[in-house]
Amino acid sequence: MARAKAPRPKPPRSATRRLLGFCGLSFAAAAYVGIDYLRYLSPTWHERLQPVLWAALALAAAGRAPFYRHWDTELRAALPFLGSIVFMLSAFLCEAISVRFVSAVMGLQWHGSAAPLPDTGQWLLLALNEKLPGSVVNLLRAHVITLHHYLMLFMMLGFSVLFDCIKAPGLGIATRYMVTMAIGRLLRTATFITTILPSARPWCAAGRYQIPGHPHPWAQKYYVPYASDSHAIRGVIDNDMAYADVQSYPGEHRPDWARMSFLVDILRPTPGEGPSWYHLLKKASGGCNDLMFSGHMLVSVLTAMAWTEAYGGWISVAIWLLVLHSAQREIRERHHYTVDCVVAIYVGILLWRMTRSIWSARDASRARRLAKLEEVQSRLFHAAKDSDIDEIRDLLKEVELAGREKKGFSQRAILAFAAATIMFTLTCVVLALTLTSDG
Q1: Cα–Cα distance for residue pair 316/330, rounded to 1 Å
Q2: Rounded to whole angstroms, how far apart are CA atoms 272 and 256?
Q3: Are 306 and 152 in contact (CB under 8 A)?
Q4: What pLDDT is attached to residue 86?
Q5: How far is the C-alpha of 221 from the C-alpha of 215, rounded, in Å?
Q6: DSSP string across 288-299
Q7: pLDDT value of position 410
Q8: pTM (predicted TM-score)
Q9: Which residues pair with 197 in a beta bridge?
Q10: Neighbours of 134 (CB within 10 A)
């Protein structure tokens, strides 16, 4: 008689939950991008489905949070997380001031007359438009994914720690993301502020800024007299000295900004823009010059790198395809030159690799256990030869304890932190839905 097959063992409950979490996160990410794209295909269904999806995600996170097992680890990562927020906001402030400076220093007349740089990447896309089928070209032109999608995809990845989809702490990967973002923004600022490049959209500055039409006195002395005269450029090179006088232009408007008055020369305000320096920075937006490298592409690459390392799978491949789609659309719509997108991609990859020490998908506790096992290996062999069961048990216990993190917080502190985190995140979701048009 044929022997009956033994029943296949059921996977552990935790493994089943993790598999469901993987499928759920991939589905949620795809659903978010797909439903948001309905704003172009069917605005009515978009208005119906987007609040439902947001509510489902918020309720799922809130319902899972009380059963999360790593709140002590999250509490330990809270201070670095708050520090990374301060660092990132400081980098954004520095970038905003620099964006306004490079946009205002040359004046509106230069923005309108400076020719864009030749961009072979855009030429290639225009050539492909003539060769590819119309449906493919329309797909390449479609706004499938934008900046806020990448930010939301990362938020979803961070909250997936509640469902054991990625390694705890979730605040750890958020800290790494913001620190990497801040470093990238500072590198970007140092790049575009040192050499001012003409915009790929010459009309941008006139439509966005109320800045003087003439250049700042710095540019009047060091750039304007030599820009269109090759003999003057040779003279500056030979003498290594500027010899032109500042031209006769209208005086600069100088509001009273108290301790922030040092920003007057940098921001070049006009009377019609109001008395607040902060108001000017809010209007800086993405700037009008070519800002090497693309900040939008940096965000998308960091999101893709985070998904690839922490999660993997087919959804990470899809996100990288969306990154490439975003890059060609940035070039196609002349928001950036091709070089800006290329540099942003490899800088983002290298920066994410560089900050691995802040948070990594690799299990640090496993590495500690292996290190401890290697340390007691000889003692374990001797105990096995001597058949000393008690010694073997004690050594294995040492290995196990080496992989555990020390718990230095009371249960009350952990519960208070968990409740505060839940309330904070739900408040952010509500504000995002009520104060923005697209979350």
Answers
A1: 21
A2: 15
A3: no
A4: 93
A5: 10
A6: SSB-SS-HHHHH
A7: 67
A8: 0.83
A9: 290
A10: 8
Interatomic CA distance for residues 349 and 354, integer angstroms: 9
Please give the Cα distance from 393 to 329 (Å, whole number). 61
Could you give the C-alpha distances from 13 to 9, 16, 18, 19, 65, in angstroms and in order? 12, 5, 9, 10, 18
- The length of the chain is 439
Bond into 271 cis (ω within 30) = no
Say what the pLDDT of residue 349 is. 96
CA triple 49-52-57, angle to 5 deg: 125
The two three-digit tokens of residue 101, written as one number: 């400076």
Distance of CA 399 to the CA centre of its chain: 38
- The Cα–Cα gap between 302 and 181 comes to 8
Instruction: Look at residue 301 in the predicted model and tell me its pLDDT.
Output: 96
The amino acid present at 310, given as its one-letter code, is A
Q: Which residues of the chain have pLDDT under 50?
A: 1-2, 4-6, 9-20, 437-439
How far apart CA 356 and CA 362 sit, in angstroms, is 10
Beta strands in 130-217 (DSSP E): none
> In a 3-state reduction of DSSP, which class is residue 154?
helix
